[in-house]
Design a protein that fits this description.
The complex is a heterodimer of chains A (158) and B (295).
Chain A lengths: L1 H21 L4 H5 L4 H12 L5 H16 L5 H21 L3 H25 L11 H9 L3 H12 L1
Chain B lengths: L16 H20 L4 H32 L3 H36 L9 E14 L4 E5 L12 E3 L4 E8 L4 E5 L6 E6 L5 E6 L5 E8 L9 E4 L11 E9 L6 E8 L8 E7 L18
Antiparallel strand pairs in B: 1-2, 1-12, 2-5, 3-4, 3-12, 4-5, 6-7, 6-9, 7-8, 8-11, 9-10, 10-11
Classes of the chains: A mainly alpha (158), B alpha+beta (295).
């Protein structure tokens, strides 16, 4: 019962984050838009690792690939990796203070972008300049905001 | 003693995370490999593009609704003004068209060719932009026309003011257009004033092109108009591409550093048009519909 409501919340929030990430925006706004779908994957991998887990990362990544992948499978690999690390470390990270959690999330966001950056490079696609990393920075700075959501999620599951 | 996994309704553990990651990573890598090699994955992409189409339409609907509302609430006087301006413009263009017919005839006589070389594209089809992606990596539009409308890969796309780009991934009802400013795009151009031919590459910056292959001593200056040269047979000849915005001659480099501004207003246009070559042209698309008449 609990699992199914968690699952529906997980699907809905990840879908909403995905829509917001691919929504067409003016150039300057899109340049600083945090990777919301990636944040959602990290969040759910930490909170409910057995509900979504690596499958969530893979599926979200594939959906991102349809919309904006230079190579098909690029985001799928990046997000599977991110979800895997988050699932493996969720027990450790969940009990850490907010600052350390933010550092962990920032490292994962960086890792996901680094994977797709490397794939862009290897496959001969444009790899972009420093602007590429701007959303990662914004996303990392926004991570503490998910703490409140995390708290409510924990309360709901108790 | 009720604190067991079953009583707390924790889903079963299933496959271990490491194995699952390994499976997904292998899957991703093989998909990537297949995609790079071309082949059957294009079909999968085609189908997924069809699935994504409704969502893309839904995402584009706020902008479309806003445009619709604005159009409906436009003042009568504004419309009258616009009408007057358009009528004047039409008269101007009619005069130009008459002059052009004359020039074409003259050109024909001078060259004694079967057909005037500039007139290779005659059919067009309007398409509405439903998704925009403009960043340093990719400058793409998605429009609401696809294979069912006869669009094919590599088809030239124009807007009112000039060339926009070409079709890249064609789905059943939608097509991803790669814009001129995309860092992976190059268009063969000609400097209208001198006739010199070169390539204009995208920079990833909105509406900016770079011309990196011009020698230092080449005759090019700010404000020069660039038009398509027709080489490469993707784009028809003579369509405006951009105007030179900066020329930097640096003694340290054997080449001039030239940037140009794209003529088509890329961040504002919501309607673009696909072009078809005349059937007799060697680059004519075999899938051109018999009657792609202008709306």
């Amino acid at each position: 019962m609990i699992a199914s409501t968690v699952r529906s919340r997980l699907v809905l929030t990840t879908l909403a984050a995905f829509v917001l990430q691919v929504l067409p925006l003016p150039f300057w706004l899109a340049a600083i838009r945090p990777p919301l779908a990636v944040i959602a994957v990290i969040f759910w991998s930490l909170i409910a690792p057995r509900v979504g887990g690596i499958t969530l990362g893979f599926v979200t990544g594939l959906a991102l690939d349809v919309y904006r992948g230079a190579v098909f499978g690029q985001h799928a690999l990046a997000l599977s990796l991110v979800a895997y690390i988050a699932v493996r470390q969720h027990l450790l990270v969940r009990n850490k203070p907010l600052f350390e959690q933010t550092v962990f999330a920032a490292a994962l966001l960086f890792a996901s972008e680094a994977v797709s950056w490397a794939i862009d490079g290897w496959t001969g696609n444009a790899a972009g300049g420093w602007m590429r990393w701007l959303p990662i920075l914004v996303g990392s700075l926004l991570w503490p905001l998910t703490a409140a959501w995390q708290a409510s999620e924990n309360r709901a599951r108790r | 003693m009720s604190n067991t996994a079953a009583s707390r309704n924790i889903p079963p553990r299933g496959t271990p995370a490491g194995l699952r990651f390994f499976v997904y990573a292998t899957l991703s890598l093989s998909i990537m490999w297949l995609d790079q090699r071309g082949g059957w994955l294009d079909t999968v992409r085609f189908a997924l593009q069809a699935v994504a189409y409704p969502l893309q339409m839904a995402l584009a609907s706020p902008a479309a609704a806003w445009d619709w509302t604005r159009e409906n609430f436009e003042q009568r006087t504004t419309l009258q003004q616009e009408n007057r301006a358009l009528r004047e413009r039409l008269r101007e263009l009619e005069l130009l068209a008459m002059r052009r017919a004359d020039l074409e005839r003259e050109n024909f006589e001078l060259r004694s060719l079967g057909s005037a070389a500039t007139d290779v594209a005659d059919r067009w089809l309007a398409a509405r932009v439903i998704a925009v992606e403009t960043n340093r990596l990719r400058q793409r539009y998605t429009v609401d026309r696809g294979t069912v409308h006869g669009i094919s890969k590599g088809q030239a796309v124009i807007a009112g003011e000039g060339l926009v780009g070409q079709g890249l991934r064609v789905g059943p009802w939608s097509t991803e257009i790669i814009l001129l400013a995309d860092p992976e795009h190059a268009v063969p151009v000609q400097i209208a004033r001198t006739g010199q031919r070169t390539l204009a590459l995208g920079t990833g910056r909105n509406g900016e092109l770079s011309l990196p292959y011009l020698p230092l001593q080449s005759d090019i200056r700010e404000g020069d108009l660039l038009v398509t040269s027709g080489l490469g047979k993707t784009f028809p000849t003579g369509y405006p591409v951009g105007s030179v915005s900066a020329v930097r001659r640096d003694g340290a480099s054997p080449l001039a550093q030239v940037t140009a501004k794209i003529t088509a207003k890329l961040d504002r246009d919501r309607v673009v048009a696909f072009l078809w070559f005349k059937p007799a042209h060697p680059a004519a698309s075999p899938t051109a519909p018999p009657a792609a008449t202008p709306p």
